[in-house]
Structure formats: C-alpha cells, structure tokens
Amino acid sequence: ELKVEQNPLFLSMQEGKNYTIYCNYSTTSDRLYWYRQDPGKSLESLFVLLSNGAVKQEGRLMASLDTKARLSTLHITAAVHDLSATYFCAVDIYNNNDMRFGAGTRLTVKP
Amino acid sequence: NAGVTQTPKFQVLKTGQSMTLQCAQDMNHEYMSWYRQDPGMGLRLIHYSVGAGITDQGEVPNGYNVSRSTTEDFPLRLLSAAPSQTSVYFCASSTRTGKVDGYTFGSGTRLTVV
Lengths: 111, 114
Description:
Chain A is an all-beta fold. Chain A has no helices and 11 strands. In chain A, strands 2, 4, 5, 9, 10 and 11 form a 6-stranded mixed sheet that branches. In chain A, strands 1-3-8-7-6 form a 5-stranded antiparallel sheet, with no helix packed on it. The radius of gyration of chain A is 13 Å and the shape is globular. Chain B is built from no helices and 11 strands. The relative contact order of chain B is 0.32. The radius of gyration of chain B is 13 Å and the shape is globular. Helix content of chain B is about 0%, strand content about 50%. Chain B is mostly beta strands and about 110 residues long. The interface between A and B is medium-sized, with 24 and 30 residues.
C-alpha cells in the first residue's frame, strides 16, 4: 500500500530554535513537494525537489530529498512566529502527476 | 492573473442533493485535479486530468464525477450528496510535469452535507 508519512504531526517550538520535519514515502518517485497552509487558507508551494540529493533553501526553511532512502526533510532554522502553519509534503506517484499527500505537520512557534 | 478560481466558497447540501463544484484556471495548465481535505488526513486525490478530454480516478473517486471539455475548466459533480462528503475541496493545476513551480491551488470550497 502506498504511504506518505510525516512526523511529527504536531510540533510546538520556541522562537530561535531549530527543528526538522520528516517525510517518508513508500514508492518510487523523484519528485517531491512541500506546501504550507495557514488556517482556513489554501496551500502555498514552498519547494519542488526533483532529484536525489536536491537541496533548496528559502529564508529559514531548507528542504532536501534522498530518493534512495525515500526520505525528505524540512529543516527550520531559528524559528519565528510567522512560520506557524501546517506543512505538507506530497509525492508525485510514479512521476505521473498523481500526487499523494502526507497528513501534515502542524507547527506552532511560541515566543 | 486569476490563477485557479473555485466556486462556490461555501455550500450546504441536504443528503441526496446534487451539485457541481466549479474550477477554472487561466494559466493554460494541462494538468488539473481535485482533492478533499479532512482533519488529520491531509489531502486525498479524488480525480485528475492530464488534458482536455482525459480524466482518471485518484485515491477516493467514489461518489464523484468529473469531465474536462476544455483546458480551462474541470468541474466536480456530486450526484447524490452524503454526510461523508462533508469536507473542504481544493482544485489544483500545473504544467504537465509540475516541475517548475509545483501545483497552484484554488482557495477551496467548504461543503457541508446535512
């Protein structure tokens, strides 16, 4: 059975701290996406990772992809309150535009 | 540039009623899809289309129909609404490969079936 698993599902952290969100998937794919969703809002594309070893950074967020381990990480550096949101990873199944999502990680950054 | 437009934003249906959720994009994207979002379950793919005249089923297609007569429009039809279809529905579009910017999502339709 195809699975996309994120952990943790809930993350509460203090401002200034670092943390990593993990995304494991169970099928062959070299296309992985990270999205952000604010409460009651739509999804915003953060990163598109297209090959093994891909690393992308935007501000305090950095995403990486290891296709051999079927693992992607989203690293948060020196968290700030504005990063509070739910973060989803999604895997493009068989590189065929059939995109499957993880359950999401609800991040809360406290002062 | 409107991007992906979904209508309506909110809808309440009675069990057994039918309705169509509208989705339109103005980016000339080949690929369009419908997802439903339920608490704690992320987004689940209902149906998708890789171009006009072509549709396919996703993870949870039962109870939903789609068609793709034009590149711009991808409506989702509920033929006989059930309480289990209470959810938030998102439409998304991308280029065929989605490689450049990922997928663009609409603002969502919050559907309640009573």
